[in-house]
């Protein structure tokens, strides 16, 4: 006899999971999003990657006599940072926008929204607004062997309020 002694097939269980997954509906694809930067409408189409940052509260730790540890929810962590990248155009649109943001000490509002094709781009409730944001550009890579890669500016967004 090969295999484990406690192994048994359960096709009915697998079909149940399949049907539950099917009933949950179409899944959101990672490329189905739209992000806007208030004051810079031309950047939305150039954003190639972004993130939904954490949603959390600070941990409050208490240790009772005898060393028993207990954690509880603290204040809302409603500021933070996330990464995004923008593809550059041959006119330098992204570089010019980021340079203006940094030199002028601009604080920006950004909106992330799901934009599924099956919803004709409607967000269906998955929207996050990031307020009073600072934008930073990390180093941008160029290479003489990158003949099939578009130049992308890696950006860091530091937000002060999320809703």
Description:
The strands form two sheets. Strands 1, 2, 5, 6, 7, 8 and 9 form a seven-stranded antiparallel beta sheet that branches. The protein has helices at residues 11-24, 93-103; strands at residues 33-37, 47-49, 56-63, 69-77, 80-87, 108-114, 127-137, 152-159, 161-162. With 163 residues, the protein is α+β, with helices and mostly antiparallel strands. It has two helices and nine strands. It has one domain: Pnp Oxidase, Chain A, CATH 2.30.110. The longest helix is centred in the first third of the chain and has 14 residues, at 11-24.
Structural class: alpha+beta
SSE ordering = HEEEEEHEEEE
CATH architectural arrangement: Roll
Strand content: 35-45%
Q: What is the CATH topology assignment? A: Pnp Oxidase, Chain A
Summed over residues and divided by their number, the pLDDT gives a mean of 94
User: How many strands?
Assistant: 9
Radius of gyration of CA atoms, rounded to a whole number: 23 Å
The largest pleated sheet is described as:
7 strands, antiparallel
> How many structural domains can be distinguished in the coordinates?
1
How many H/I helices?
2
* Helix fraction bin: 10-25%
Distance between the termini: 59 Å
């Amino acid at each position: 006899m090969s295999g484990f002694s406690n192994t048994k097939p359960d096709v009915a269980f697998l079909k149940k999971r399949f049907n539950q997954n099917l009933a949950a509906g179409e899944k959101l694809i990672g490329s189905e999003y739209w992000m806007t930067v208030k004051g810079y409408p031309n950047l939305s189409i150039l954003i190639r990657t972004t993130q939904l940052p954490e949603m959390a509260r600070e941990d409050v730790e208490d240790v009772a006599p005898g060393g028993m540890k207990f954690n509880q929810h603290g204040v809302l962590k409603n500021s933070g940072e996330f990464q995004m990248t923008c593809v550059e155009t041959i006119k330098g649109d992204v570089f010019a926008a980021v340079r203006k943001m940094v030199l002028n000490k601009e604080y920006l509002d950004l909106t992330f929204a799901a934009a599924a094709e099956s919803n004709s781009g409607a967000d269906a409730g998955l929207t996050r607004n990031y307020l009073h944001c600072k934008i930073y550009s990390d180093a941008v890579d160029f290479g003489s062997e990158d003949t099939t890669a578009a130049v992308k500016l890696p950006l860091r967004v530091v937000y002060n309020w999320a809703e």
